[in-house]
């Protein structure tokens, strides 16, 4: 059930969006050791974002997971997602924040119930 919400001020075309969704799904699943079938990625493009007082290309992300997060894993996720954004959208890693949430099972719903 890992869910990655990404927001960027860059407009993203459909092909690039699809590439980012695929790459991020594979990366999140691999790093967290969870099946791709449970990973959800959302990409919100063209969102007004000011970072360090400018509207230059930037991004913000939130990753929610039931377990699997920690200092080492979070660092690897941050590095990998930043790399995807750099390659696909030319967003410098110094203009990307990501926040991690370790969610208790009863606080995350799926299929009409909770985990």
UniProtKB/TrEMBL annotation:
Enzyme class: isomerase
Domain of life: Eukaryota
Reactions this protein catalyses: L-dopachrome = 5,6-dihydroxyindole-2-carboxylate; 3-phenylpyruvate = enol-phenylpyruvate
Subcellular location field: Secreted
Entry's EC annotation: 5.3.2.1, 5.3.3.12
Keywords assigned: Cytokine, Isomerase, Secreted
An MF annotation (GO) of this entry: phenylpyruvate tautomerase activity
Matching InterPro entries: Macrophage_inhib_fac, Tautomerase/MIF_sf
This protein's GO CC annotations: extracellular space
Family note: Belongs to the MIF family.
Entry protein name: L-dopachrome isomerase
Species in which this protein is naturally found: Brassica carinata (Ethiopian mustard)
Classification of source organism: Eukaryota, Viridiplantae, Streptophyta, Embryophyta, Tracheophyta
